[in-house]
């Protein structure tokens, strides 16, 4: 479906306008052939996923006007891209973004990683292995399943026992909740989609943090939402700008991640939650709050803030077992007031008619033992985080980052805006990471990369060594080509890795 992002500046999945292409390409560098600069920028944009494969590029004539360059320059750039396999031109359909054989596809949507070469360290997904006791929990779930086997297996709102446990956890965290205010879903992505579909009409504006969780963008595109981006940094939210944007945007909803924000790791304070909640209430804005990482608290010396819903009654809280327990269960939930929950139930039916019963029973067993991450997993994550931090400070002291109190990743600032180049060079070193633009709600973030600390400490130290080699290549101008050398059989083409 063709997207419509209005004034947000995000491109359509079907057509890239000349104006937006010019913004993405930027200004040609002095002393460098203009056609080569344009070709290189478009190649990196396609390889990095900011221009999706299959997108129709602007005509040469339109791009000439937008860039202020000659027709010969733009024609030469497109010719370079066609020769390298990044553009296919067909009579009647114009020039379309493609990828040459052997290049890893990077879409901003949700795709499963497959065919990762042996020896490659894949850090594109911030998720953990299954916890200890999973087998026992699965056996207990099977033992408890006969009571559900006589029915159809479709439990629209979720099994009552799991809803009770989820509601109790919200109450413990400071937001009184009953089971009737909980809807179990097949993951947080689906929960967010349900909330967005229940709230939004085409053309409605959504307040959205940037960077943001990239897998929410396809849903907003399909709903033809307009985006009002607000900045989030590793040291927190720009509250004056955010409050001002709430007031000026006329947003219908806001998608927020106040708890160990993905990817920055920021944790919104109680005072900031109260301030933002007042602004949302004045603007009659419903908050869709992603709490997927809320239970992944690593430094326990200070209490957690209250859930955002404790400050803003018009909040739809979205949670998931994917970070706190295991992504393989594919169980999430939505917490909302009674009347809102009825709207959510109606909105889910066209594409989700209930989460798997056995998986719900497994999660029930796990949550009865530990509502969030266990102390053992917390200790493992702290060790991994500290090993990554130490390796980066020793090997790459020029990188800047804030060590988060929780969550699963570091948001790292590079000295120069070369995130796409670094991620491509890192891939050639056998390291898969996500570049900042993958998380951008309105372009930019070319100085940032995300590295999750979800591998072993030794593997993370090795990952830093590979990253250092990749950065050396980029700095020396020796970054690997993304065309012919990669298509020589060293890699198999696959869908883009999961960015979660």
UniProtKB/TrEMBL annotation:
Keywords: DNA-binding, Pyridoxal phosphate, Transcription, Transcription regulation. The keyword Transcription regulation applies. One of its GO terms (molecular function) is DNA binding. It comes from the Bacteria. The keyword Ribosomal protein does not apply. InterPro entries: Aminotransferase_I/II_large (IPR004839), HTH_trans_reg/aminotransferase (IPR051446), PyrdxlP-dep_Trfase (IPR015424), PyrdxlP-dep_Trfase_major (IPR015421), Tscrpt_reg_HTH_GntR (IPR000524), WH-like_DNA-bd_sf (IPR036388), WH_DNA-bd_sf (IPR036390). Residues 32-100 form the HTH gntR-type domain. Residues 474-500 are annotated as: Disordered. CDD domains: AAT_like, WHTH_GntR. In the C-terminal section; belongs to the class-I pyridoxal-phosphate-dependent aminotransferase family. This is GntR family transcriptional regulator. It comes from Knoellia remsis. The lineage of its organism: Bacteria, Bacillati, Actinomycetota, Actinomycetes, Micrococcales.
């Amino acid at each position: 479906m063709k997207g419509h992002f209005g004034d947000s500046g995000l491109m359509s999945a079907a057509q890239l306008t000349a104006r937006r292409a010019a913004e993405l390409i930027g200004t040609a560098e002095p002393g460098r052939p203009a056609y080569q600069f344009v070709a290189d920028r478009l190649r990196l944009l396609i390889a990095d996923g900011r221009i999706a494969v299959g997108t129709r590029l602007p005509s040469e004539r339109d791009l000439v006007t937008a860039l202020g360059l000659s027709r010969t320059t733009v024609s030469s750039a497109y010719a370079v891209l066609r020769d390298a396999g990044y553009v296919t031109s067909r009579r009647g359909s114009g020039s379309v973004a493609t990828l040459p054989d052997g290049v890893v596809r990077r879409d901003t949507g949700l795709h499963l990683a497959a065919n990762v070469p042996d020896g490659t360290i894949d850090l594109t997904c911030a998720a953990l292995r299954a916890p200890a006791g999973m087998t026992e929990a699965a056996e207990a779930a099977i033992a408890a399943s006969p009571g559900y086997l006589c029915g159809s297996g479709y439990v629209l709102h979720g099994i009552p026992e799991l809803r009770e446990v989820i509601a109790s956890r919200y109450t413990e965290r400071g937001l009184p909740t009953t089971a009737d205010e909980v809807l179990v879903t097949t993951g947080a992505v689906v929960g967010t989609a349900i909330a967005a579909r229940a709230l939004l009409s085409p053309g409605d504006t959504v307040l959205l943090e940037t960077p943001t969780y990239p897998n929410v963008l396809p849903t907003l595109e399909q709903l033809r939402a307009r985006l009002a981006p607000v900045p989030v940094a590793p040291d927190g939210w720009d509250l004056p700008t955010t409050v001002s944007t709430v007031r000026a945007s006329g947003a219908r909803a806001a998608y927020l991640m106040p708890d160990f924000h993905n990817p920055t790791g920021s944790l919104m304070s109680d005072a900031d939650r109260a301030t933002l909640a007042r602004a949302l209430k004045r603007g009659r804005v419903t908050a869709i709050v992603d709490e997927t990482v809320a239970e992944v608290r690593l430094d326990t010396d200070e209490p957690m803030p209250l859930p955002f819903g404790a400050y803003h009654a018009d909040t739809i809280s979205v949670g998931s077992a994917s970070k706190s327990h295991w992504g393989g269960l594919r169980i999430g939930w939505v917490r909302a007031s009674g009347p809102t929950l009825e709207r959510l139930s109606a909105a889910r039916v066209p594409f989700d008619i209930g989460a798997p019963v056995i998986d719900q029973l497994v999660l029930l067993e796990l949550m009865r033992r530990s509502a969030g991450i266990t102390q053992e997993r917390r200790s493992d994550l702290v060790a991994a985080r500290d090993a990554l931090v130490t390796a980066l400070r020793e090997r790459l002291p020029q990188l800047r980052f804030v060590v988060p109190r929780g969550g699963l990743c570091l948001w790292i600032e590079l000295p120069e805006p070369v995130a796409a180049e670094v991620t491509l060079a890192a891939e050639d070193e056998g390291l898969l990471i996500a570049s900042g633009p993958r998380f951008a709600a309105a372009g930019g973030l070319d100085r940032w990369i995300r590295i999750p600390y979800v591998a072993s400490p030794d593997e993370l130290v090795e990952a830093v060594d590979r990253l250092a080699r990749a950065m050396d290549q980029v700095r020396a101008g020796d970054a690997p080509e993304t065309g012919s050398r990669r298509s020589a059989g060293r890699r198999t083409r696959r869908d883009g890795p999961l960015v979660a």
